[in-house]
Amino acid sequence: MALRALWLLRHDPGAGGTVLFSRRYPTVEIRAETFNGSTHVPVPSDSAFLKALLFELRLIDDHIFVEHRDTCTRINHSSVYSVRTEGGDLWPVLAFQKSGLIYACLPLVEETLEPRPPLLTVSGLSQGLALLLGIVDYISPSRKNEAEMSAKIGQLRNLLIQACPLGTPLNTNICSLNSSFDDIQEMPTDENQPAWRSNTYKGKPQVNVCITEKVKCMQYDKRDVVDMWQVYGAVNCKCDIEGSAPNVTLTLNLPTNGPPLQDIVVHHCVTSIDPAMLMSSSAEPLDDSVYNGPYKFPFIPPSDSFNLCYYTSQVPVPPILGCYQLIEEGSQLKITVNLKLHESMKNSFEYCEAHIPFFNRGPITHLDYKVSYGQLDLSREKSLLVWVIGQKFPKSLEVSLTGNVSFGTAGKEHPTDYVCTGNTAYVKLWFRIPDFTLTGCYVDQHSIQIFVPGKPKITASRELISSNYYIWNSKAPAPMVYKTLFD
Q1: What integer pLDDT is reported at residue 486 of this predicted model?
Q2: Distance of CA 274 to the CA centre of its chain
Q3: How confident is the model at residue 179 (pLDDT cuts 50, 70, 90)?
Q4: Rounded Cα distance, 7 and 97, in Å
Q5: Whole-angstrom Cα distance, residue 181 to residue 20?
Q6: pLDDT > 70: percent of the chain
Q7: What is the helix (H) or strand (E) element at residue 62, kind and residue range?
Q8: Which of 12, 116, 264, 466 has the fewest Cβ atoms surrounding its Cβ within 10 A?
Q9: CA distance to 26, 80, 177, 341, 354, per residue, from 124 (Å)
Q10: At what angle do helices 124-139 and 146-163 cross, to 10 degrees?
């Protein structure tokens, strides 16, 4: 459960890439040589790794077909890559992009690499992911301020000495650490206190749990194209409990016949887990043998807020079904949008909007429309229609919009898009439903066990949020999404 190396990279489409930060762990590398034996591949230089990773992620030379990278038999089901270097194929490289930056690390595999072991057996992957997400939370707020971001990156080396000493992730909440060695707290005198509990809480015990599910969707309303949707969940916890190493057990439950949770990744503070919970993968078809709960997580909580686990699920239907038609009639565009809320959904939104953008065109000069429900607004730039449906659908659970749109001459200030050319267009839905999850997953407050004196105050909540929820124009070509690539 260690990392051989860690990188923070930037990709500039015009200028290539830059290594913003890197950290190697020589002692872990020695262990890798021992464990991997003849299959060991050394970590290349930063510049060589940057070039190789950008190539693997198709961020450079993407117009060239390379068989070992682009063949249909090699489709990634995760963010784990095999990066081809001069010394061989470096695996498993965990890498993902966020706000223009690339976060990557190379976990230690404590066995031979040929044949490659299953990802579930590489314990360093979940710890590496948690550490990278902690760095994302630390870096992201300063993304728009270059000077502030540079200062934070400059502090990363000191922070990682605390968070990941000698390559072993101990505290993935980077934001809770102090970059000054003068202020680092002394090691706890209680030998049972884990390193991720940086301080001891004093006061009445209380636990806050929030399940957040995000649903991604691509709908086409075409017979020859399959619609795709996926649910991603995260369970966030904040445990204010006295004691150096309090034990907490939290159980996630599903309703009868609810879709099982898959691709479960747990925080390293979880002390034990049923292996059956980790075996279900969205890359495999569902069958009756898939574990469907209850999902029990015993853990020693960190001092600050943290994500106890992540999961995905294959729900049978999307929450909102839609149809979008855009056709040209003379000098105008005729648009029709129909939306239907599925009857299994909770009809109570914090907000629900449909955004209809128009790319590669001038400003909207004429708009004639009719909505069956809600109101339609025109953006200040006059290139986006915002259909505010509100907090509820009508009793019929169906709403519609029809209209005719005319445009002026396009200028440099108007939005362009390389995909949405001609009549290729989409409607993007934005919504949030409080106290609801698409999987039905919930936390029974009475099932939370806390082994400390006093009666704790327990608060549990859940929410469903749209994320990249697209409905494409059925009267024009649209980019296709394959299930194995839909992440």
Answers
A1: 44
A2: 24
A3: low
A4: 12
A5: 22
A6: 90
A7: none
A8: 12
A9: 16, 12, 21, 42, 41
A10: 150
* Angstrom distance (rounded) from CA 308 to CA 245: 16
Record the tokens describing residue 436, joined without a space: 């609801």
| Res. 183: pLDDT tops 50 | no
- Alpha-carbon 321 to chain mean position: 23
Q: Which residue intervals of 315-454 are DSSP H helices?
A: none
CB 269 within 8 A of CB 245: no
Q: Could you tell me the two tokens for 104?
A: 């990557």
**Can you tell me the distance from the alpha carbon of 144 to that of 147, in angstroms, rounded to the nearest whole number?**
9
Q: Has residue 433 got a pLDDT over 90?
A: yes
Number of Cβ within 10 Å of residue 204's Cβ equals 12
pLDDT tens digits, 99-154: 889 999 999 999 999 998 988 888 889 889 999 999 998 988 766 688 888 889 99
240 with 205: CB under 8 angstroms? Answer: yes
Question: SS3 string of 260-320?
Answer: CEEEEEECCCECCCCHHHHHCCCCCCCCCCCCCCCEEEEECCCCCCEEEEEEEECCCCCCE
Residue 271 to residues 153, 199, 245, 248, 291, Cα–Cα distance (Å): 32, 19, 11, 10, 20
CA distance 79 to 70: 16
Q: Give the residue, 484 or 457, on which the prediction is more confident.
A: 457
The predicted structure's pLDDT at residue 66: 61
In contact, 324 and 336? CB cutoff 8 Å: yes
Question: 160 near 298, Cβ under 8 Å?
Answer: no
Would the pTM count as exceeding 0.70? no
Kindly state the DSSP code that residue 204 receives in the 8-state scheme: S
Chain segment 385-411, per-residue pLDDT in tens: 999 999 999 999 999 999 999 999 888
Please provide the DSSP assignment of 453-487 as one string: SSPPEEEEEEEEEEEEEEEEBTTS------GGG--
Determine what percent of the chain is predicted with pLDDT higher than 90: 58
